[in-house]
What does this fold into?
Amino acid sequence: MIARLAGFLALFYAIGFLYFALTLPAPIRAAKTDAVLVPTGGPGRIARGLEVLRGGDADKMFVSGVDPEVKPSEFASEFGVRAREMRCCVTLGYLAVDTRSNAGEAAQWLIGNDVRTVRLVTTDWHMRRAAAELRYSIPDHVAVIEDGVPSDADMGTLFLEYNKLLAALVTQGWAG
It folds into this structure.
């Protein structure tokens, strides 16, 4: 009986991993939201967030998890953001150090800015966990639109992220 249960769990885990690895979220076409949220940490995320902002699909952008030593002027210079655009539309968050604290930091900003719809821009392999953590941290009335940044993740990265996702779901009581 225990061997069958273990075999079933191993099979369930393997099928879950295959589904996770083969169905990574992709970029989405135009979808108007109140704001775009970009957690730092992966290539292409901030550029994609700025593309959404500049394309008129969001009025403001929050970047979570910025290194505390990075000044807004340095961020602007690095990513080609004009001073006017920084003042009106881009907010940098310096409190987060991981995906869970990105969600908490973003939730405070979303609530404080009365955001009802947010486009989450993060790397494709990171999306499911980032979205689960965010949805767990924000009020139910805030809609999250997922916009995955394509990557060439290796199997090790996918395996690690799948396990982190499972751990996050367990700690949230499967509420993601």
Notes: The two ends are 31 Å apart (CA to CA). The chain has a mean pLDDT of 94.
